[in-house]
Structure formats: structure tokens, C-alpha cells
Specification:
Layout (H helix, E strand, L loop, with lengths): L13 E10 L2 E8 L4 E7 L6 H15 L4 H34 L21 H5 L1 H13 L1 H9 L7 E4 L4 H6 L1 E10 L2 E11 L4 H21 L3
Antiparallel strand pairs: 1-2, 2-3, 4-5, 5-6
Amino acid sequence: MGVVAAPAPVRFVLESVYFTRVAERKLLVAQVSDAGFVESRLIETRDDFSQGELDGISRRLTVDFAGKSLQEIRRLLLAWLEEEKLRMDAALDRTMELGRQAFASERPAGDSVFVEGTETLLEKPEFRTDVDGLRRMFRAFDEKAKLVNLLTDCLTADGASVVIGSESSFTGETQSAVVTAPYRRGDRVLGALGVIGPRRMEYARVVPLVEELARYVTRRLTERAP
């Protein structure tokens, strides 16, 4: 009776490795040692691989690990995976930080409404004599929340909207009128613009003006759309 002891895995020094696809997510892996011994076994993978992918992986592993024992290869692979995890974690951290800064708003939510020309209100006779009314107006501008709600309510309108007095908390508190119209980018409503003034404002002139301005802004934004 003859007896032969095959080399222990710890003494198996890799010369080359080959992967062959035998079925979906089933591979035959063959390891060739520098002494000419061949070890093969069937393995099941989580993902499916084409034979072209497997040929590339076989060449890469042969180049990287030829001349090393299986024990060394296992240790190197574990170290490589740990290093890759750290690198990916660091890359993810950098990505998240850049994303946080890139997509964070630079202004608080209360500053999403911009008001210009408030000094012209001083020229209107209603506010020249009504100091309390003017004070309420500027306090409402500072708070802006009621003005935001007013403009948001007007976003669903197809054209200009006129809000007077008690029709909203903003115009009721300030005893004013607001003419607004939504502007779009293509078919998507982005916001609203308008004019704030006394309740006796010239609506026949202001309404077409606000509508035309909204159409102009929509046209310019749509022209820039990709």
C-alpha cells in the first residue's frame, strides 16, 4: 500500500488561478500551485458573472498573488478589504459633507420672499396720515410669514390674483391690496411675484403689468431650461 501526503494548504504557493462559469451564480475555481498541483472546487456567488468578467478577474488575481501562499493571500485580501472599506468610508464622508454644503440653503426660510420699493408707500396719501397703518405694514414685512402664505395661496392661479383687505391676514392687518401672478419654468410653477399697494390702487393698470412681468420671467426661465 502506497501513501502520499499532499501539500498542506499552508504550503500551497499559488502560480495561477482560473474561474469558469458553469451556471448562473455557480463558478468552478481552479488553483494551480508552483509545484504543479491543481485544486478545484465549485463555488456559488451572490452575483452572476460573465465569462469575460471572470477572465479579467483571473488575470488580476494571478498577477497580484502569484508566488504567495494561500495563507498570505487570505491575509492580504482581508487587509485590502479593510483598507478599501476605510477609503470608501472616507470618500463617503467627503461626499456627504460636500453634498450637505452644496444643497444647504444659504438663507433661512423666512428670507424666501424679497421685498423692494417699500419707500414708495410713503408717497401714498393713505399711509402718510395713517402712521399706525404704516407701522403695521413694515412690521408685516419684517415677519414675512403672512406674506409668504399669501403668495403661496396664489401659486395655483392661472393668471393674476387680487387680494384686498380682510381676504387674507396680511392685507387685513395692513389694510392693503396685493396683485400677484405665478411664474413658471416650462409647466412647473416656481413662485409668485406681485405688487403691494393701497386698496384704491389702479387695478386696470397694475393687473396687466403684473401678468406681463410674470410672463416675461416665465419666458426667461424657460429659455434657460436644459
